[in-house]
Amino acid sequence: MPASEISSFAASGPADTSVRFLTRVQQIVLEHAEQAERRDSKVSRWVDPERLQKILDLQFNDQPASMEQLMDCISDTLRYSVNIAHPYFLNQLYSTVDRVGLAGQWVTDTLNASVYTYEVAPVFTLMEEMVLAKMRQIVGWSSGDGIFSPGGSIANGYAINLARFHKFPQVKSKGLYGLPRLVMFTSEEAHYSIVKMAGLEGIGIDNVYQVRTDSTGRMDVGHLKQEIQRAKSEGGVPFMVSATAGTTVLGAFDPLEDIADICNEEKLWFHVDAAWGGGALMSTRRRHLLSGIDRADSVTWNPHKMLAAPQQCSTFLTKHPKILQECHSASASYLFQKDKFYDTSYDIGDKHLQCGRRVDVFKFWLMWKSKGTAGLEEHVDRLFDMAEYFTDKIRQRPGFRLVIEKPQCTNISFWYVPPSLRDLEGQPDFKEKLNKVAPLMKERMMREGTMMITYQPLKDHPNFFRLVLQNSSLTREDMDHIVQEIERLGRGL
Amino acid sequence: MPASEISSFAASGPADTSVRFLTRVQQIVLEHAEQAERRDSKVSRWVDPERLQKILDLQFNDQPASMEQLMDCISDTLRYSVNIAHPYFLNQLYSTVDRVGLAGQWVTDTLNASVYTYEVAPVFTLMEEMVLAKMRQIVGWSSGDGIFSPGGSIANGYAINLARFHKFPQVKSKGLYGLPRLVMFTSEEAHYSIVKMAGLEGIGIDNVYQVRTDSTGRMDVGHLKQEIQRAKSEGGVPFMVSATAGTTVLGAFDPLEDIADICNEEKLWFHVDAAWGGGALMSTRRRHLLSGIDRADSVTWNPHKMLAAPQQCSTFLTKHPKILQECHSASASYLFQKDKFYDTSYDIGDKHLQCGRRVDVFKFWLMWKSKGTAGLEEHVDRLFDMAEYFTDKIRQRPGFRLVIEKPQCTNISFWYVPPSLRDLEGQPDFKEKLNKVAPLMKERMMREGTMMITYQPLKDHPNFFRLVLQNSSLTREDMDHIVQEIERLGRGL
């Protein structure tokens, strides 16, 4: 039976074929979801790119594949993809596959909605506005606006655009011509999207002044002041500071109160990239890390990171109620007709840069419902507690060296010094040798498929591991296991 | 039983709870998918925003919802959302829920991958590169590069950024300061994202010169030449033309060969926004509409539009092999480490502006596999044939007036003149009266839930309907039904 009969648009295809196919796919993904979380399963099944290309039947044929061939395609895709759901996938700022979130995605996929007008997406329009209002309230604002964004990078780009528009509204129509050189500030450990988006928006990467960080990764406020003065003395016009709440590598929280003071004094837009660390706002015990965030003009906060919503769920929030609409609107008369029969203030699409836009709210809303606000807090608290347990454990353990003694977030950065190198510390080529350890250990863990933790250099630090937690089902036994596994992988180096 | 036990991160929750929940959700979405396509089901179930807000239990509680409450949330969401899958949802440039595509989304959701490095997304990295290469080949290029984009608007933004970088590579680092005023050109019927993105990128909306269109919606090439000269005489520096292949409202194809000639002569970047019309490239009979697209520097092409892949599946293609990397790269050392054990040219994330990025390729790849290339062609051919059938049918029908006599794409724009107005044509207030007809009929169709077709004004045309086809399961009987339904909805006006 050709697979073309499965499709809704093969009019001749019997409906039960489709149902049988969809049912089989549902079974296989459910089995996969169950398997993937098991600690005795593989995190990944490493195959070199050249070989994987040969294993997978990627090319298209002129004629339809059969249903069995499609099922094979799906099986191969599941087999050779990385198990993000595995407890020992600790590689990135996202992990786990939350089951309620997953169910939420299945629902929105089935609806295939695009969120721009109330008439085509009534439920999700109301849901977005409610969730964004709730998040703003948690940030500490009594009014404002917000949007769901295709990732934190684009959300940070929205911040730059709004900050510029706030100071120079004519940029929207006239562009940057005739304006002085605009300068913005962020720390040298801020996410790379800040410079990417400054490049896109015509600001230029060189006009993002990189403020020094201290040894824990936090923005050096004294240096920020100096850099603002330097920009002015060079004829630049400062317009925004982008602080970070939870840096990508070290998980550092910039001192938001101090930065807010400076922004206030210098009349600069104050943006906080809390894509990663925003989740800590849910915790009574941890939200002090973001103290001062209520003074920000805008915030990036990705529930798909610390709150473990499925990819992708990113938000951009601002305390200014109308600026998104004013800065972004194009009033397309084919989509945002004003003579509709309902209140068209519910047609929220024009405040976005995207036109068609997937539903990213529902999975998160459903998770929040399922756990309750207290459940999200408990989730965050567990992550931090577990990070402290892990940090305490490796602090005294032979061979482990913390990059910062007291990590602020659930990122734990450390070197593993194999036995053969332990006597060489202080010698001139020690750093160079240590720099090679993490890549070698990473290769071993990838080839064996037992775990995934990333590594990177930073400033003058040689390569170190960054373990990062968003999965609150991890236990102390898991942490103990991870330590032992690192030791095993480092054996003989 | 509290729903928190369902979640993977409620470590104490019994696994079978999760499985039972996921199984129930699978059942309900499968039933919904079956129902939604039935012609005797409702397209939508209209509820005013204020009332819907009361019906839906949107607010969060502190404590977890029960599994039954979650199931109710899901049922309500399905119930009050619009049935995009319904054959009579003809409102936008997307429609239908392709079942293979849907299955593909269920698979990628279950994997929850982010596509930026080979190590975390091996299958999807290879798949993206293969699909994009295939699409470039269909455009007519032997080399180049491409990326999946979160929608056509952002893809058009990529084009502007690359065009500018191509002419002035220093913009990436230095920004627009010190550069002359850059000017770009697009038609007055181009998608609004062109001006939105020009605003974002510091070009300014006023520096997008809007070229006149002819009565069929195609760019007036004579006027383009004049506008280029005008820009130069005003001290502006032209750098790109964004042509449209399939405009949003009328479905017009700009004369790409002529525009290519001008771009060649004037050394301008030639972009084609084929987000909508790109699908016609799959058809031997229809690809002539895009004749000259192989001479473009870049193309936006959204498979989620004419090819009916699920939302969201947008691509940006360029014939320049290295420019995406050169223009966008930030070389973040925490993610794109160069000392990895595999060939890091497979880490494709740095050529994107997004960092974390959902998998949009798989659903489309699986659909293409399932239909075969010939099946995609057949799909496109059916859409055009059905559009011609509908156009022919209403051409002679009392009360129907075509906005353009021979629509180029599967958009059919028409007025419905109710019997009471038919004798008034030519009178001074006829247009004003006609302008009110479509909104009233739209309200009726929404309240009854029998169909969804959008309407809009355009230039000096009063409101007219635009029916648009991407659903190749529609039959001639459906077309006949739609005509009768329009007549029924217009009764008594």
Folded structure, characterized:
Chains A, B: One of its GO terms (biological process) is carboxylic acid metabolic process. Chains A, B: Homodimer. 2 copies of one chain form a homodimer. By secondary structure, chain A is of the alpha/beta class. In chain A, 41% of the residues lie in helices and 13% in strands. Chain A has a 7-stranded mixed sheet, with helices on both faces. In chain A, strands 1-11-12-10-9 form a 5-stranded mixed sheet. In chain A, strand 3 (182-187), helix 8 (193-200) and strand 4 (208-211) form a beta-alpha-beta unit. In chain A, helix 1 packs parallel to helix 3 (67-80), helix 6 (152-167) packs across helix 8 and helix 12 (361-395) crosses helix 14. The longest helix of chain A is centred in the C-terminal third of the chain and has 35 residues, at 361-395. Chains A and B meet through helix 1, helix 2, helix 3, helix 4 and helix 5 of A and helix 1, helix 2, helix 3, helix 4 and helix 5 of B.
